# Entry
Amino acid sequence: MSKIGFAVIGTKGMGRGHIKAVLATEGFELRGVCDVMPAESEACAKEFNVQGYTDVKAMLKADPQIKAVSIATPHWYHPPIAVECAKHKVHVVTEKPMSVTVSGADQMIAAHKKSKTILAVVYQARFQAANAKMKELVASGVLGKIHRVMLLAPGYRTNAYYASGGWRATWKGEGGGVLLNQAPHDLDQLQWIAGEMPSQVVAVNESVLHPIEVEDRASALLTYKGGATGYLHVSTTEVPGRNVIEFAGDKGYLRLEDGKLHYAKIDPGIREWTENTKEAWSRPKVAWEEIALEPPAKKGHEAVFQDFYEAIVNKRAPKVTGEDGRNSVELANGMILSSFTKKPAKFPVSRKAYDALMKKLIAKSKKRI
Ligand SMILES: NC(=O)c1ccc[n+]([C@@H]2O[C@H](COP(=O)([O-])OP(=O)(O)OC[C@H]3O[C@@H](n4cnc5c(N)ncnc54)[C@H](O)[C@@H]3O)[C@@H](O)[C@H]2O)c1
# Structure
């Protein structure tokens, strides 16, 4: 079978990782690279012996053999580029977050639906064994009715990191802080493993360590339709910063920490025990187990690009569709909306309200480039 012509858009940072992943995917042929910075595009094209471009539309016109692209530009450019590619019937795998706003994500999804092309989102953490197993166990119902979820994803960045790109950490350049750049993987995991979006969020976002206009710390209380409650905390302000995801149910408990998945079977369920036991100081039996994990064949971006390739040739949905990718954007948007309005934000987030808020924030933003 002939290979699928591929181009990588945005080549400086993550784009180099995309090139590696394209080269590791047998069915793809890297034909071009595109970066608005001519020197960057030229150097990258030379390094990989392919054609270099500085404009996406011109590239797609010049080389009709490019049937698939990946996007690794700053977030605001993901929607216009993905929509342009759909117009040329080109499949797209885009970096997280797929868009800064849910309305941008809606446009990307609609454009690719119309052109019947694949829109995939890079959430490589979904391919990690522990995350996939946690998703499988929650979906199996082994926890019974879930009453609490928790995500802790405290991370760390220096001021030098924020100064490393003019687009970083401004409303104009990035459209958010930790919620849009460092935490999307964590937000994605929470909603993916839960299998549903919350119905409402109350959030407090702040900038506490870095001299930036967007949030470097965000905390939220989530409410789910079925009665579960959830809380989450993400930041770029903490060291050592251990990530934890917990799901607590009536019949079981799961905790994922540092790639290790612990399961506690609760026998009988909490409600049954509470209603039936005659012993005042008692609790149901708890049996702990560390879940054995099998490492996947491919990891990171290579796994995402292999899945993207298989989705194209088998005409199936990718593991992370545009609709899936939109959920973490929606969570982040809901948290930003709630924090600014000091009110709960309902899901789905009001596109009108969020776009209006962004417009105001951008008008006051000091993009550094
Ligand atoms: N999946 C992950 O784990 C992961 C990790 C890092 C970054 N990312 C994502 O990758 C994206 C890029 O981040 P980065 O750190 O590589 O940024 P970067 O600044 O290092 O690189 C971005 C490149 O895009 C180019 N560019 C800007 N606008 C463009 C346009 N309209 N057309 C073509 N090229 C354009 C820039 O010139 C630059 O070379 C972000 O959305 C980020 O969230 C994802």
